[in-house]
Prior knowledge:
Blueprint: H1 3-23, H2 28-50, H3 59-85, H4 88-110, H5 117-133, H6 135-143, H7 158-178, H8 183-200, H9 206-216, H10 218-241, H11 244-251, H12 254-264, H13 271-289
Helix pairs in contact: 1-10, 1-11, 1-12, 2-3, 2-8, 2-9, 2-10, 3-7, 3-8, 4-5, 4-7, 4-12, 4-13, 5-13, 10-11, 11-13
Amino acid sequence: MALGSLLLLLSAFLHASWNALAKSARDKESYLFITMFFSGFLSLASVLVVFPPEPFSHPEVFWFAVASGVFEGLYLFSLAKTLKSSSLGVSYAIMRGGAMVVVWLISLSFLGEVATVGEISGAALVLLGIVAMNAEAFLRVIKKSSVTVHPSQLLSVWPFLSAVFIAGYHVCYHQALDHGAEPRSLFTLSVFVSLPLVFWGVATPRIQNTLATLKNETSSVLATSVISTLSFVIFLYGLKASAPGFAISLRNSSIFFALVFSFFLKENLSRAQIMGATVIASGAILLSIS
């Protein structure tokens, strides 16, 4: 297997890994804030120490970076809510697969792209998988059933919102890179812009809760910071060594890794949910390579 493919698969594995670690955190909002706080400084160090700093080459890049940071902050805010209300296996597939569909729709509506049969088929598979994963919850909403169920089986709006925010920062990243942004500098600025929004999501008293999480889950949150930063940096190297469509399709293999972590987290996924996640991943791959 080529080096680029290995890097992309490793990036997908690491991304699913840090989401799984966040899922197991007690206070997910403060956990994600600390994670991104340290991730920002790690990425800044990579720019200033490991790599020579490169200024943004186009004035618009700065504003695309700010916009990506806003979307990333909203994503992390909604991710914390998602991990509290849904299982990792279900929510991760919806977030990543749904984001692919939203990016595709934005590209069709505003970036002048033309839909292909493969893209339409991929989008249809993603939507079909989402419906399959949430079929029982949809039926409860329709029937207004009063049956008591586990929270992970309830229909939650948060993973769908997360998908929209993921799409938002991906589009902004893409536009910034098209205008000549240096990727590591772009990511660093985006992370620091996102931090106030993530901190706003922490329950009051925010400072006390954040310090408590740092004290009680120090090793876990630091590991998550390193893993999340590596997942992005490794993806950049994989993207350099591979064609963009192929890179994104391999990156979406993280949906399958999330299902594996869901098993280790002892989440009780039904056959329909597992099959739905598989259909979503297949549709996302088809959508990205078409």
